[in-house]
Predict the 3D structure of the following.
Amino acid sequence: DTGVSQNPRHKITKRGQNVTFRCDPISEHNRLYWYRQTLGQGPEFLTYFQNEAQLEKSRLLSDRFSAERPKGSFSTLEIQRTEQGDSAMYLCASSLSLYGYTFGSGTRLTVV
Amino acid sequence: KNEVEQSPQNLTAQEGEFITINCSYSVGISALHWLQQHPGGGIVSLFMLSSGKKKHGRLIATINIQEKHSSLHITASHPRDSAVYICAVRSPNFGNEKLTFGTGTRLTIIP
């Protein structure tokens, strides 16, 4: 068990470009969460999956954002037409039950 | 007003001091988490509480459900404890799946 893995660790992109992040959860965890954290703030919920089903999406997740978990294992988060306001740390977490949480190291996105 | 508030926002102390970080919340909860975040960004889960008190090494976490308040204590603090400590709650008000976070307390321990 190597924990929750996120790739890439850092991404610098030009405004208007599309980016995709990947999260590999702990293998037996059926729940997977995406959060976004801006500088000096706590993380904010974006979306979560139970197995392959996306069960909840925050209103923060505009139509430029899409998340998938096609086989109930890894997940991807895509941002289309990036804006400078998208610059943040994107955190993934997974859990087996409602009460255990394991976070990844995050992907830091900088939009220039 | 945030549903989860932490104090202080920043705390600087000398090595060896006893540290207390506070978390107050305004909603009913099913669980409260204390998390540690180092400058690289990764978050480590320290405790999950739904009542009482938990201890792990030099760290102690307590929760008072009636007062909607939790504290994280660090005994014999060390420079390696320097990090951001974040309180987060899981609440049936928010669907009980996701965590709602405080803004964190930045702790700096000076040798």
In short: The radius of gyration of chain A is 13 Å. Chain A has a mean pLDDT of 92. Chain A touches chain B at residues 31, 33, 35, 37, 40-45, 48, 55-56, 89, 91, 93, 98-106, 108 (CB under 8 Å). The CA atoms of residues 46 and 61 of chain A lie 6 Å apart.
